[in-house]
Every structure is written in structure tokens, then in C-alpha cells.
Amino acid sequence: MNFIKLAQSYSEAGYSVIPVNTNKIPAIREWRQYQDRPMTSQECQENFRKAHGIALLGGVNGVIMFDIDLKNDISGDFYQRLTSKIPQRLLNKFYIQKTQNNGYHWIARTDAVEGNLKLASRFTTPEERHK
After folding, report:
1. Dist. CA 16–CA 20, nearest whole Å
2. Do 10 and 50 meet the contact criterion of CB atoms below 8 Å apart?
3. Residues 90, 94, 97, 99: is their CA dihedral positive or negative?
4. SS3 track for the chain
5. Closest to 116 in 3D by CA, of 64, 55, 68
6. What is the mean pLDDT, run by run of 10 residues, along the chain of 131 residues?
């Protein structure tokens, strides 16, 4: 995959992206500057030369993301129950992406973003951590 061209297209569209390594960790030290602005074309060429992946920064330039992590879903049907409670017309406004760990990212753009905010979480049980 040509991450340079992909990063340039995202940046030209006004999105802030950064390169990540195989562990999804930022591959550049000074990545936080891109929370304020997208990379230039030249910065994309420099920063994505050795990229193993690309990350879209949420809470920046109107991008909102919901990270729905299901690896500790003890019910097995949390995602189905969640989506059944949300009107389809609202779900249609999101780009929905399946994650490597069988969770989901819901991504949209809005004018009502005020940075990052954790909406919900729960502690794992000792048994879940063991698995």
C-alpha cells in the first residue's frame, strides 16, 4: 500500500493523519503538531516513507470517532444490542470500520467536536485478563 499517497489525499481533504508502526504506535516523535493541522504534501512524503500503517487523529478538524472494543464482551452480543438502539439514519452518517481485534471504529465529521472524551468503559475481570 502506498501510504504516502494515501496520507496526502487525507491531508488534502483536511484530515490529520500520522504514520504508525506495526503496533499502531506513532512512528514519528513530533506527531502532536498534527492535532492542530494536517500535514503538508512534503511532510507526508517525509513522514510516511517507512510507515507500516496510517492513523486518523480524532478530535481534530471535526473528526469524531467511537472505538467500540469487543474483546472483553462477556455477552457476545453487545454490538448487536448497541446498534439496535441507534436509528439507522444516524448509523448511516458514520464510516464504520472493523478493527484488527474484531471491534469497530465509527468515524464521522461534525462541527461539534471539543477534543477527546472517554464516554464509557468497564474494568476487566481477573478471568478476562487471564484469557
Report:
1. 13
2. no
3. negative
4. CCHHHHHHHHHHCCCCEEEECCCCCECCCCHHHHHCCCCCHHHHHHHCCCCCEEEECCCCCCEEEEEECCCCCCCCCHHHHHHHCCCHHHHCCCEEEECCCCCEEEEEECCCCCCCCCCCCCCCCHHHHHC
5. 64
6. 94 95 94 94 96 91 89 90 96 92 91 69 79 69
